[in-house]
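Dear U.,

Please find below the material for section 3 of the report. The protein was modelled together with flavin-adenine dinucleotide; I have listed the sequence and SMILES used, followed by the predicted complex structure.
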Amino acid sequence: MLGSASKAFFHLLAQSRTLKKLATRVAMRSEPPARLRSWRPRTPASVVHRFVPGETVEDAIRAARVLEAHGLTETFDHLGESVTTLAEAVAATRDYLDVVRAVTQSGVERNISLKLTQLGLDVDRASAVDHLRKILELAEPAGFFVRIDMESSKYTELTLEIFETLWQQGYRQIGVVLQSDLYRSEDDLRRINALGARIRLVKGAYREPKSVAYQKKADVDAAYVRMMNVLLTEGNYPAIATHDPAMVDLTRRWAAEHGVASDRFEFQMLYGIRRDLQVMLVDSGYRVRIYVPFGRDWFPYFMRRLGEHPANVAFVLRGIVSEGR
Ligand SMILES: Cc1cc2nc3c(=O)[nH]c(=O)nc-3n(C[C@H](O)[C@H](O)[C@H](O)COP(=O)(O)OP(=O)(O)OC[C@H]3O[C@@H](n4cnc5c(N)ncnc54)[C@H](O)[C@@H]3O)c2cc1C
């Protein structure tokens, strides 16, 4: 992990509107299909491609086909967050409806992840819920599972409230995310488990104050393990989302010791991260779903990934140097 000062630096960059505008003006170059087919690009044409397979849904579907050929599954995330106008939220909703149609036509697995601020949560709560409902009305009958990603702690209460309301209204192909760095998450876990809803467990990608979140990695990890234990024994098909080999080992061990079969949960990892671990788990008989982000709005997502892991910064610097040759 990077030190918290560097992590904070990358989070600051992620929020910079000027940098985001500049970055997204530089369209990502499309990766040639042959390179994608081999799935292990060593010197990618664009460093962003390592983590984001492209800007279009076709790029994402192409990447998904490669993942599926390797025994993995995927969830599609059309990148975007924190929209500030209703028009942007309506456009993001339209984009997601197009993603649902394209994925349905393609024949790859039907699973999407989305963020409520992308659908306008900061602009108007009722409209954001309407937008989500519109997506669910198209996606659920088509056999999709729709995961509501969790954003910073500012949105936790609201996101869970919206999720639980939709659940009470009968939507069943939806799930949420809980972050082990937040003090509140173990209580949330008990309540949402009691509904029988599907939970994705993560450590938390946002920089949170100590009033709401553990600050030490050891505390975040310990909470992760406690939550993973409850999820595996009491949860409904939980997703253990981590690249941390220690968390993966503890999950495998807990499942084996408590007779939890490998088809009663899945591991989840991000596209391009710890591909060695992804393959090892599939080869060992576990289910692994890869989060496949795509779209023009890749900058904040990309910056958060850099902030998580020093090796990623080195990878990007190496890529930039070799591209400049
Ligand atoms: C499928 C998926 C969905 C997610 N959805 C959300 C969400 O909705 N909300 C949210 O707040 N967060 C989300 N996250 C991000 C998550 O909260 C963490 O920020 C992220 O996964 C890093 O934590 P970690 O458990 O992987 O390991 P860490 O504790 O950060 O690191 C432990 C070890 O894991 C490996 N590792 C971790 N990160 C990287 C990396 N970037 N590159 C290479 N190796 C790495 C390294 O070996 C490292 O030493 C998601 C993560 C995944 C995998």
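For the text of the report, you could mention the following: The longest strand covers residues 288-294.

Regards,
Y.
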